[in-house]
Design a protein that fits this description.
This protein is an alpha/beta fold. It is built from 15 helices and 11 strands. α8 links the parallel β2 and β3.
Length: 482
């Protein structure tokens, strides 16, 4: 046994040490931000194979390291290889850059290290405030239930969990679960819906065999006539239709389902109406697209992601449930006789988490700095840039527009006259791979109506119109090499 004397090991720092390291960290991020703004960074830089293995296979640290050494390692080996979405020439997934003030909010929240399950603490009241703001923006009553969650996937799970509780026929869902349900529940969504809907019905025990994928129309929106037909078929088959999940901005094309019509069907059929607005929901503020969102305020539950079009650091999603009491009844583990309604109820009674991070601070800071009018302008600007991209695609003879809007996703392909139609898919796959490897710009792909398409998403307050020309030029440059 080692009986030697050793210095005590502690993570503690003096205020001077913490201040010095904090300044170094801020300098690293500020320099990174400067390079992004000046377009000095590639949109995506692949992690070198040697570094990839080094990061994956690090041995368990037996002894401590100096904090300065760790920051230096971060600066050299981690910071240069992000996902890339903070870059103004990143057009891939629906990921936005973080507003710098909300990055500071993340640091401050970590320093407080609050678990915002509830209780008399500033974080609780701040979260209630920002939730009320989001309800107001989305047209929901103040008395609705709401939570900040990790993102759209958990928002969908929470919304459908409340639905499952509210539509259970056994009257004892929390006791017997779905084993007491007969006939089985059936959920409906669009063929273009996000995979989080599949995950939700599976995790909640409904099962993907009871999830109906309704065909879409020519604009990739749910076909309401087909929805009504499928509900009738299931009722005649002795099943129990319970819920329609509509999309307020699909990630494939930015399509917004006909929310008003779907809300009417849900009222007529007595179904729960959930809207996945993770990407597009907040675009209800936009000048160009607000009409597409008519009916979103009629949803029984809604998910939106402030970490997308509100430019908040990941993670920051939100779920709103119209019937606050149903939300509490579905999740609360506190017996009714112990609930004290003279105080604000604990957030942990309204969702699956007991320990909850202080997500509200970064959101509060950004919303206070930008304001509703600022968000209206920023989101409208992104949508306008997408419109300009489509105009530029139409103006270039070797490009073909495949889908357009109404939000900020554009699908297109490179289709010069010299390439036979049957070969275009393979050519565009090869072209996408080449553009991604160069990394000056970054975009992804999808398949629409059997056609392989390049897909560009604009959800970045740093992107300018010149970056759109840069994108198309980069694609054309690689195409000419083939």
């Amino acid at each position: 046994m080692d009986t030697g004397n050793h210095d005590e090991i502690t993570p503690e720092m003096t205020p001077e040490q913490f201040r010095r390291l904090g300044y170094q960290a801020v300098d690293l991020l500020a320099d990174h931000l400067d390079r992004l703004q000046k377009r000095l960074e590639p949109a995506r830089r692949a992690v070198p194979e040697g570094l990839r293995q080094q990061l994956l296979e690090q041995p368990l640290p037996q002894n401590g390291s100096e904090p300065e050494e760790l920051l230096a390692y971060f600066a050299e080996n981690i910071l240069p290889y992000p996902l890339g979405h903070t870059n103004p020439r990143f057009f891939a997934w629906v990921n936005s850059p973080a507003a710098p003030i909300s990055v500071i909010g993340e640091l401050l929240a970590a320093g407080m290290n609050s678990s915002v399950a509830g209780g008399d603490q500033a974080g609780t009241y701040l979260e209630h405030a920002v939730l009320d703001w989001l309800k107001e923006i989305m047209g929901f009553p103040k008395e609705s239930g709401a939570l900040l969650v990790s993102g759209g996937s958990l928002a969908t799970i929470v919304g459908l969990a409340v639905m499952r509780y509210a539509h259970a026929q056994s009257g004892d869902l929390r006791g017997r679960g779905l084993q007491g349900e007969d006939p089985p529940m059936v959920v409906y969504t669009s063929a273009e819906a996000h995979s989080c809907v599949d995950k939700a019905v599976e995790l909640l025990g409904i099962g993907h065999d009871s999830l109906r994928k309704i065909p879409v129309d020519g604009d990739f929106r749910m076909d309401v006539g087909k929805l009504q037909q499928q509900i009738e078929i299931d009722r005649q088959s002795g099943l129990h239709p319970v819920c329609v999940v509509a999309s307020a901005g699909t990630v494939n094309t930015g399509a917004v389902d006909p929310l008003e019509q779907i809300a009417d069907v849900c009222v007529q059929e007595q179904l729960w109406f959930h809207v996945d607005g993770a990407y597009g929901g907040i675009a209800v503020l936009s000048e160009q697209a607000r009409e597409w969102f008519r009916g979103i305020e009629r949803a029984d539950s809604l998910g939106i992601d402030p970490h997308k079009w509100m430019y908040i650091p990941i993670e920051c999603g939100c779920v709103i449930v119209r019937n606050r009491q149903s939300m509490r009844d579905a999740f609360s583990a506190v017996p009714p006789y112990l609930r004290d309604d003279r105080q604000l109820p604990w957030f942990s009674e309204y969702g699956p988490q007991q320990t909850r991070g202080f997500r509200a601070l970064k959101l509060w800071l950004a919303m206070k700095q930008v304001g509703v009018e600022g968000y209206r302008q920023l989101i409208s600007r992104d949508i306008h840039l997408a419109e300009r991209l489509r105009e530029k695609i139409k103006a270039r003879p070797d490009f073909e527009l495949i889908s357009a809007g109404p939000l900020s996703v554009t699908c297109f392909r490179y289709a010069p006259p010299g390439i036979p139609a049957p070969e275009l898919d393979a050519f565009n796959r090869m072209l996408l791979d080449a553009v991604q490897k160069v990394g000056e710009v970054y975009l992804t792909s999808t398949i629409l109506n059997g056609v392989f398409a390049l897909r560009a998403s604009i959800i970045n307050f740093r992107t300018e119109e010149a970056d759109l020309d840069f994108l198309l030029d980069a694609i054309e440059r690689e195409a000419r090499k083939k």
